[in-house]
Every structure is written in C-alpha cells, then in structure tokens.
Design a protein that fits this description.
heterodimer, A: about 750 residues, alpha+beta, Phosphoribosyl-aminoimidazole Synthetase, Chain A, domain 2, B: about 220 residues, alpha/beta, globular
Chain lengths: ~750, ~220
C-alpha cells in the first residue's frame, strides 16, 4: 500500500477507510473528519481508533467517573490526583507513595502467561513514570470454577506469569486474592497492583513542555506484538467460537524492564527529564498525544527514527504497536548527553525521535512526509463520551426477594464438618501453592504478605515508617446490590489495613464489568461508582485513580460485577504492627462487632448453590469507629493479634488464625451455626493478654463497638463447643485443595 | 572491613546483601559488572537475581563480566567469596565451584522458609555456626537443584565441602539435599537459600542468616 500522507488525504477525500474494522462507529469516524476538516490519513485513523477505544478513552464510564471529582474528599494528602498515570499520596516524613491497580483480563484468557506477565509490567511502568521506585506488587485474580478443565489451563499460566515477571523485576509480591466463580470461565480477571515510593520533590508528570525540548524514546525496540491489542482485545466481547487472537497479545521481557527501571531511576535522580510517559496500551499513539496534550500541544516526531525489531512494520503499525518495556521522555537539549550516557551504561537503547514545538499540533513524519497532523487533545482527551442507557436489570428484584434457605449444621459432628468444608473450599483454601511461586522477600522491606490481612512494606529503614495495602471485592454482594457491594468492599479493604494498626489513607480501584452496551450491566456500573464515591466521601478517603474493564462477558453472560477496591494505609512504626495471629497459648479471644443472620452472598450459600437474598447493609460510621479502635489497639499495645472476618465468617477466620503458628483455640459460641457461618460485615477477632481485658472493654465501649469474649488460645485443636478439630486434620483440609487441583 | 557487592544488570538482591553486610558491622562497597577494579575490598558477595536475564543459562554470561575476571583471580588467591542463589550459579559457571544448578524438580519457582543444617563450620562464611546447627532462611528460586557427577559428589562428601543441607523434604531435587558447597580452600562458598533475607525477624522469618556475614568478620579478624 502506498504511504497515506496528509497531502494525499486532502486530495482524496472519498477514499474508503476501514474504520469499522478498527472498532470505530460511523459517528465517531464522522467526528474525526470534522475535527481534521478532511479524512484522516491511515496513521491518524490508527491513532484515533486505539485512543478512542473503550480501554483508553473511558467513553462509556466517563460520565459516571465524574462523581469521584464531584464528591472529592477535601484533603492535603493527595499530591497528584486522577488523570495522571497514578495518584500520589503524602505519607509523611517527606515521602510520597503512589499506587494503582489495572486489569489485564482479556489477554490473560488468550495467553495466560504473557497476559499476566505484561499486566504486571504495565502497572509497574505506570508507577515508575511518576518518578517512584516500585516497591511491591499485588494481584487480585478471579477464575472459572476450580474444577473446570480450562481453569487448569488459565490459572497455572497466570500465576507463573505474575511470578515470572514480578520475581525477575525484584518486586516482592505481598498479597492479592484468588477467587473462583462460573461467570469468570472465559473471562478470568487478572488485576495487578503496584506500589511505589519517592520523595515529594521527585514527582514526575506526563507533559511535554518547552519548545525545543527533545522527545526521547528509550527501552525495548518496537516490534509487531500487541498491534491493535487494545482495541481488538479489550473492547470486543469474545464470541463463543472466536478466531485465534493470539498475535494481539504482547510479549514481555522482565529483564529489559528491570534494566529500564534502574536506568530511569538514575535519570530521575539527576533530574534530567521535563516530562515522562510509559508506553502501554496504544503505544506511541498514546504516549505522544498524551505528552503533547500535557504541554502546549505542539510536538513533531520523525517516526522513521523509531528503532524496530521488525523492519517491515508500517507507520500505522508502529503507532499502534504495544511492544513492552518502552518509555518516552521529554529532555532539555542541555541534558541529552548525560541522559544518553546513563542509557548507555545500562545498555538501554535510546533515540531522539522528535521535539516539542511552539504550535498546538502533533505532527508526525515518515521519511520526511507528513502522515499525522492533529490537535493532540482531540486524540488523548476529547474522545467520544457516551451516555449509555442504564436500568435496573430484572434479576435484582427476583434475587432480592428470594429467601436464603441455607442448611445449617445442628450438632457437633455437623459443625466440625462445616468448618472443615469451608477450610478446604477453593475460595478459602490455603493459597501457598500460589504465593510460594512469588518472591515476597526481595528488597528486604516486607513486613506482611499473604496470608496476612494486608500487605505491608517498610518505606524508611531508620524511622520504620511503612505502608499497608489491601485489595478486596465481594462480587456476590455486588451482584445482589452493587451500591452496597462496593461500599462493603471498601470497608473491608480499609478494615484489613486497620487490623494491623495502619491508618487508611487513600483508595484506588479496578472496576471489572460485562458489556456497557447492556443497560443492566451499565446500571451495575453506575450504582457501583455511586456507592464507591459516596463511601469514600463518608470515610474521608480520596480516590487517587482507577481503571475500568468492560466487556468481560461471553455471549450474553456477563461476569458478576467485580469492583476490586484497593486501600492504602500508613503506619508510623512497622515494628509495632498487630500481627494476624497468636503464637502462644493463654490469650483471650474477643469478637468485635455484632453478628446477624447474613447468609446472602456468603461462602456457605455459594457452596450450596444459593445466589439470592439481600446483601448486608453497611453501617460505615460503625466501620470507621471499629477502624479507630483497631489502630488504638496497636498504639496502646492492647492487642497481641487481630484478624478480619470476611468470606467464610468466623469459621474461616479461626481456621486461619490457629493454623498460622500451629497454636489451637477453644471457643464457646451460643448459636454456633450462625456465629460461625454468617458473614455480617464489620467484625474482627482480637487476641489479648488477659491483663488487657479492662482497657479493651473501655476502648470498645468508647467506640460503641460490641465486644464479646469467645474463647482462649492454646492446645492442639480448634475446639468449638463440643466439636474438636485436631490441627493436623484442619491443616490437611486447608492445604490439600490447591495441590490436588493444580498439581 | 570492606565487602564488595556486585551488581550485574538484572541483579535483584544487591541492596539486601549490602544491608546484611552493614548489619554484621562491615562496610558494603557497590561493585559494577563492567568495572574490573575491586576498589580495595576484602571480600565479595555475588547476590541473587536474574543477571543478564538468565539468558543462555543462569550465570553463563555473568562469568565473562570484567568484574568477574578480577574476582576469579582474587578468589584463587584466597579472598572470601560468597555466591547466593544466582551468585552460586555464577560461581559454578566460572568453575570456582563444581556442579550446576538446574530447574527445580517440580518445575515451579519456589519461595518458602527453608530449614537447613550447617554441615561445615570451617569455611570463611560459616564459622559463626555450630556443627549440625539447624537454621531457617528463605529459599527462592526456579533453578536451585544442585547436580554433579558421582565422583564430584563423593569428593564433596569426603572432603567435608558440603556446607549446608536441606532438612526434611527435598525442596528442589538437589543431590544429597545440598543447599551449599565450598571449594577446597574454604574461601569460596555457594549457597542456594538467602541468608541476607534473614537478618532480623521484622523482615525475615528469623535472624538466622546473619551468621554468614558475621562469620566473615571473624575469619578476617582472625587473620
């Protein structure tokens, strides 16, 4: 095909263009023509099509996400907010922390290892781009039924990919989730979170300011991988018998990324860049248009200078390529020599591909001929905005009116069987098979990792300042009531931070949903965003950013609405954290918070195939008072251990506590079946030395949180009323599930 | 006392190794793979990671780095040298130690707290321990299965050059449960588990690993 230039586009307005194949609708194509006053060149069409895809433009979600701005929390803690590559939070002592969570769902179904690996790689570059050193990763994962044959293809590949990439980058993996549900068969959710730390003064932004400054592309060479990955993969629902889409998945090389990280950090330390952007989804199209938009708009790029792995690539393909491990920096001419010197030290390819100009157009040439001439904001920020119709789906009234009739254990033998059943069910079983494939020790700052309630890393070795992060979602509750469901997830994530004694500080999110073209799914999404914005406002937690993943659906079956909420907290001295379990006998166990009959959406209901009922109602004020109590329990040295109750209720929490250090417990419960299996939110078990009883009760009364003595630690069994479960038997049930399923 | 910690492209545990050296009371000096100058160090640690991306074979490219030529020369003259994980792989590739590390027998990367027993307390890096002492330090690698021919294995056993063995179930298929070995002279040690990640109970499972670094100080002061 002949080169399609701006000149050619002007003289051949009627040339037919494959905009539909590139995922653009008729009216979107018409709008591009209107913006440009002519037909786009094929390179421009490529750029608009990837940047206006759902994945990059948030065209279906934008009108809802606006609420995070409208309901924003007034805070000084937020140093950089939504809109940049990742939000940045002040954690004190001059340190800033950035964290973000993103989805890599569709690629991970097609090519589990590479999909998951490049998901980690992409989020790490987002964090690096802010000027931060990445310090930890987490990975909330969701798969089809544990017993399904395809899950045995997808899960091991995803785990190996997360580990293979993260381990090789030297980033400790400090937590996540592994959950199974039939709606994720064909639509596994692979979300990846990264945390980075920097000094306030080192924050970097994506902007191309200062005419005459140079545009430098550095990192891996550009190849044909991932071409159109964003628009083809992330925006179209899989057909039941779709064509092989393997070539659209990117292939990662963590070694190149590790070197790129160290090289970039050395460049940042010498303050050699004006602006910086990583190349992720939509590759150079995204990086150049966003950098130019962040400045005055003017930028010229000589595309033929881009170093290629495959010399046969066309300019359109180069613009769309999603080859991994690439960064784009804006560098003042006086610093370019030193910049290139550092790249050379790390053996990183770096090429000046253009410069910032005085105008307001992004101009790209190919061997001297102009092939792109666009206002960059129209590409990066002024994409289409959809007011998608949304309406409460019919299933809501139906499931909400269903009575949750779960069979409850009635005698000692049945109670024992129920505890063992929950201990071994795939959603609650021991995840060591997964986490032992991740390096949690590297960097030497990991304080907590799975199976703790939250991941915690030390930020400063001399002051012992640290941060904790937890990610949570309860899709079963979101299915029953998306507004409450996300607020419950938010409260749970914050509680998981607080059990260790850290103070919740900021929120990020990854919102995984079905097709936005389905009004019912769109309603789930709208309700979720409304619930999250309201919840964050009430808790006083700023939302620092987020990610939306739509089209997680096969045919007409959408995934459960799955908003994954990440909460970041700060702890002034990691040495004083409250651990999740006890390592000695003779401690008193108390349950904080009330227990009701909350079986809807519970693990016990899920095991019995019951989906209906009404989700629990959340009292956020009580949740916040509980968190305050938990933090006070640490600072006033009341607690020896504290552990959150969530999926699997008290049964799962006790199982996890007694197995952590092999110290048993004896527990007396009035209404054992309900007390053990109900999942009423807002509850925590704490272990205290008996001498701390009075101070605990005083604090609990002050916080208006109910506090009941339920038992003591010690012995070699978990004994609940008359049910005696020897620890080896409990351990066997808890640990054998994953090796049995996945080898 | 100065202890060099080498950084190859893809090295990951260099900062941890330097921290362990400082914890033990010595000064950590950063050594860059392209710089043959050892900057007057008294001992060297090759830390864990994926040097050169583990391309070709783990450690196969690193052994040719300029810094390694100086290290090999000094090690042959008796300088204490510890290779941890990827560092152990580099030592085998450089023929400072016999044998090779191959893929774990279960084919997964494995990260866990591992019990090992110290079998030789005469090396430069193990004198702080008592014979047969059992310690727990992290093990984390994909290619940690120690293999060698029967004759080499017999020599290692007979000469007491196995410095540490895994206790309990074999985590990776290593011959004779070998977790670490030393050379004839006892100055070069290769170890698969990571003592630098077990220097305090805040960030590690134990503080058992610190002994490797204090051993070095004792052996140097004794000279």
């Amino acid at each position: 095909m002949a080169l399609d230039t701006v000149a050619a586009a002007t003289t051949s307005p009627d040339t037919k263009q494959p905009f539909r194949e590139l995922g653009l609708k008729e009216d979107e194509y018409a709008r591009i023509r209107e913006i440009l006053g002519r037909r786009p060149t094929s390179s421009e069409l490529a750029m608009y099509s990837v940047m206006w895809s759902e994945h990059c433009s948030y065209k279906s979600s934008k009108v809802h996400l606006k609420q995070f701005g409208d309901k924003a929390v007034k805070t000084d803690a937020l140093l950089v907010g939504i809109g940049e590559n990742a939000g940045v939070v002040d954690v004190g002592q001059g340190y800033a922390v950035t964290f973000k969570i993103e989805s890599h769902n569709h690629p991970s179904f097609i090519e589990p290892y590479q999909g998951a690996a490049t998901g980690v790689g992409g989020i790490v570059r987002d964090i690096l781009t802010m000027g931060a050193r990445p310090i930890a990763v987490m990975d909330p994962l969701r798969f089809g039924p544990a017993e399904a044959a395809d899950t045995r293809r997808v899960l091991p590949g995803v785990i190996a990919g997360v580990g293979g990439y993260g381990n090789c980058l030297g980033l400790p993996n400090i937590g996540g989730e592994v959950t199974f549900d039939e709606t994720y068969a064909g639509n596994p959710l692979v979300n990846a979170l990264c945390i980075g730390v920097m000094k306030h003064s080192d924050i970097k932004l994506a902007k191309a300011a200062g005419a005459g400054n140079l545009v430098v592309l550095y990192g891996a060479k550009t190849g044909g991988d991932g071409i159109g990955g964003v628009s083809v993969l992330a925006s179209e629902t899989f057909g039941a018998s779709g064509p092989a889409k393997r070539p659209s998945v990117q292939v990662g090389d963590p070694f190149v990324e590790k070197v790129l990280i160290e090289c970039s950090l050395e460049i940042f330390a010498e303050d050699l860049v004006v602006g910086i952007q990583d190349l992720g989804g939509a590759g150079l199209s995204c990086a150049t248009s966003e950098l130019a938009s962040g400045g005055t708009g003017g930028m010229s790029v000589e595309l033929d200078r881009v170093p290629l792995r495959d010399p046969s690539l066309s300019p359109e393909e180069i613009l769309m390529s999603e080859s991994q491990e690439r960064m784009c920096a804006i560098v003042e001419p006086k610093n370019i020599e030193r910049f290139l010197e550092i790249c050379k030290k790390w053996d990183v390819t770096a090429t000046v591909i253009g410069e910032v100009t005085t105008g307001d157009r992004l101009e790209i040439t190919w061997h001297g001929e102009l092939i792109v001439d666009v206002p960059p904001r129209t590409v990066a920020h002024e994409g289409p905005v959809y007011q998608r119709p949304f309406a409460e789906p019919a299933y809501i009234k139906q499931v909400n009116s269903e009575k949750v009739d779960v069979p409850l254990p009635t005698n000692a033998a049945e109670i024992k069987a129920a505890v063992l059943k929950l201990a071994g069910t795939p959603n609650l079983a021991d995840k060591s098979w997964v986490t032992s494939q991740y390096d949690k020790y590297v960097q030497g700052n990991t304080i907590q990792a799975q199976p703790d309630d939250s991941g915690m890393v030390r930020v400063d070795e001399s002051t012992h300042l640290g941060v904790a992060v937890s990610t949570d979602a309860n899709a079963n509750w979101s299915y029953l009531n998306p507004y409450e469901g996300v607020r419950l997830a938010l409260a749970e994530a914050a509680r998981n931070i607080a059990t260790a004694g850290a103070v919740p500080l900021a929120v990020s999110n990854c919102l995984n949903f079905g097709s936005p073209e389905d009004p019912g799914v769109m309603w789930q999404f709208a309700e979720t965003v409304r619930g999250l914005a309201d919840g964050c406002l009430e808790m006083g937690l700023p939302v620092t950013g987020g990610n939306v993943s739509f089209y997680n659906q096969t045919g007409s079956t959408a995934i459960l609405p799955t908003p994954v909420i990440a909460v970041l907290g700060v702890i002034d001295d990691v040495r004083t954290r409250t651990p999740m379990s006890f390592d000695r006998a003779g401690l008193d166990l108390y349950l904080l918070g009330d227990t009701g009959e909350d079986f809807a959406g519970s693990e016990w209901a899920f095991i019995h195939g019951i989906r209906g009922g009404q989700s629990p109602q959340l009292d956020l004020q009580a949740a916040m008072r509980l968190n305050t109590l938990l933090v006070a329990g640490r600072t006033e040295k009341i607690f020896t251990a504290a552990h959150d109750l969530s999926q699997g209720g008290l049964s799962a929490a006790l199982t996890e506590m007694v197995l952590r250090h092999g110290i048993g417990a004896t527990v007396k419960l009035k209404n054992a079946a309900v007390d053990l299996l109900s999942e009423t939110p807002g509850r925590v078990i704490v272990a205290i030395d008996p001498s701390k009883k009075d101070v605990l009760l005083t604090q609990a009364t002050k916080a208006k949180i109910s506090c009941a003595h339920i038992g003591t630690s010690g012995g070699d069994s978990l004994t609940i009323n008359d049910s005696v479960i020897p620890l080896p038997e409990l351990s066997k049930a808890h640990t054998e599930t994953f090796p049995r399923l996945f080898g | 006392m100065k202890v060099g910690v080498v950084t190859f492209p893809g090295t990951l545990d260099d900062r941890d190794a330097a921290r362990a050296v400082r914890f033990a009371g010595a000064q950590a000096i950063s050594l860059w793979h392209e710089d043959a100058d050892l900057h007057g160090v008294d001992a060297v640690i090759l830390p864990g990671g994926f040097s050169y991306g583990d391309y070709l074979r783990c450690g196969a490219i690193s052994r040719f780095a300029p810094v390694m030529q100086s290290i090999i020369k000094r090690a042959n003259e008796g300088m204490p040298l510890l290779g941890i994980c990827n560092g152990f792989q580099v030592l085998c590739e450089a023929h400072l130690l016999p044998g090779a590390l191959t893929r774990n027998h279960e084919l997964h990367f494995l990260c866990r707290d591992q019990k090992i027993s110290i079998e030789n307390t005469t090396s430069a890096w193990t004198s702080s321990y008592s014979q047969g002492q059992e310690i727990v330090i992290p093990l984390k690698n994909g290619e940690g299965s120690f293999q060698c021919d029967d004759q080499t294995l017999a020599a290692l056993e007979n000469e007491g050059r196995i410095i540490a063995r895994y206790v309990g179930e074999n985590p990776n298929g290593s011959r004779n449960l070998i977790a670490g070995i030393t050379n004839e002279r006892g100055n070069v040690v290769g170890l698969m588990p990571h003592p630098e990640h077990a220097i305090d109970t805040l960030t590690g499972p134990t503080a058992d690993g610190l002994g490797f670094f204090t051993s070095l100080l004792h052996s140097m002061v004794g000279k």
